[in-house]
Design brief:
Elements (H helix, E strand, L loop, with lengths): L14 H16 L12 E6 L5 H12 L3 E5 L13 H8 L5 E6 L4 H6 L6 E6 L5 H15 L6 E5 L6 H10 L6 E5 L8 H10 L3 E4 L11 E4 L10 H7 L18 E3 L20 H20 L6
Parallel strand pairs: 1-2, 1-3, 3-4, 5-6, 5-8, 6-7, 8-9
The structure holds phosphoric acid mono(formamide)ester.
């Protein structure tokens, strides 16, 4: 039997495949009826050992909208992991029940270990501070729809750039497109890891670090806000000190471009004030909707299913 295709990191997809997924997602958005029964008889398991709203529910909504079925669990406590079962054993068992698995786990590397134990495709729905490839695909689809291109953009990444897995993957993906510049906005303790800066250098992409979003607001085509990741801190004191360092509000948007877009993978805590939600540049709820359509496209790709011509 052919080895399954797994998506552990965004680097598991070529640029051509990413562009193809974006194209299919846009076709699904335009012609949903063409896809409503396309996965009839197929089953997706969502195995979430860590909390989620968007990723789990958008995966489930995606499979249901393709005419398939879903099963799974939303926390380790409601699975036999709470009795000490290993991830490997869980995957080995669930792989017998379904055609494709989306899993989230707090431990970095857990999806790679899982992928060795089953012949069905594994999609990493987030592993610790490591990767979150379907969030990156979501971000790329949102940017493509709103800006019409993935090239020549200046992207401000703001907040927890140390632990924020979404920004690490987004940089890796955007480096494939011409003329992209990065502005890194974070407190000293939460700066972008060196390995990501090295990736930017190797790709020849210009980047700079700043301490205040106000200083760079007029330059940005995209402002990508992130939450300070409380669950990744070793002590509460550090979290409380850094929480609320960067809060985007309407006043700070005064110098921003008219067509800048504001993204956030969500959930937000207080890093974007609710008075920004009505600004036409606020795209984070649209972004969450895009997550469903790009996951539909990814499920189809991994199951080898295409819309009939
Ligand atoms: N963006 C994201 O991963 O959200 P959830 O944690 O709600 O899935």
């Amino acid at each position: 039997m052919e080895a399954p295709r797994n998506i552990i990191n965004i680097t598991d997809l070529s640029t051509e495949e990413i562009d193809e997924l974006i194209g299919v997602a846009q076709d699904i958005m335009a012609n949903p009826a063409d896809y409503q029964d396309i996965c009839h008889g197929k089953q997706l398991a969502t195995l979430f050992f860590e909390p989620s709203t968007r990723t789990r529910l958008s995966f489930e909504s995606a499979m249901l909208s393709l005419g398939g079925a879903t099963l799974g669990f939303s926390e380790a406590q409601s699975s036999s992991a709470s009795k000490g079962e290993s991830v490997s054993d869980t995957i080995r068992v669930v792989g017998n029940y379904v055609d494709i698995i989306a899993m989230r786990h707090p431990k970095e590397g857990a999806p790679i270990a899982a992928a060795m134990k089953t012949v069905v495709p594994i999609i990493n729905a987030g592993d610790g501070g490591h990767f979150h490839p379907t969030q990156t695909l979501t971000d790329l689809l949102t940017i493509k729809r709103q800006k019409g291109t993935l090239e020549g953009l200046t992207i401000g990444l703001c907040g927890d750039l140390k632990f924020g897995r979404t920004v690490h993957s987004l940089v890796a993906a955007m480096l494939r497109y011409k003329g992209v510049k990065f502005v890194l906005i974070s407190p000293d303790e939460l700066k972008m890891p060196d390995y990501v800066k090295e990736e930017m250098d190797e790709a020849g992409a210009p980047w700079k670090e700043v301490a205040h979003m106000e200083d760079v607001m007029p330059e940005l085509d995209i402002l990508y806000m992130t939450r300070i990741q409380k669950e990744r801190f070793f002590n509460e004191e550090d979290y409380l000190r850094l929480k609320g360092t960067f809060i985007l509000n309407r006043a700070k948007l005064k110098t921003a471009k008219e067509d800048m877009i504001i993204l956030h993978p969500l959930p937000r805590v207080d890093e974007i004030s609710v008075d920004v939600d009505d600004d036409p540049r606020a795209m984070y709820f649209t972004q969450a909707l895009c997550g469903k359509y790009i996951r539909m496209a990814l499920i189809l790709k991994l199951l080898g299913i295409r819309k009939e011509a």
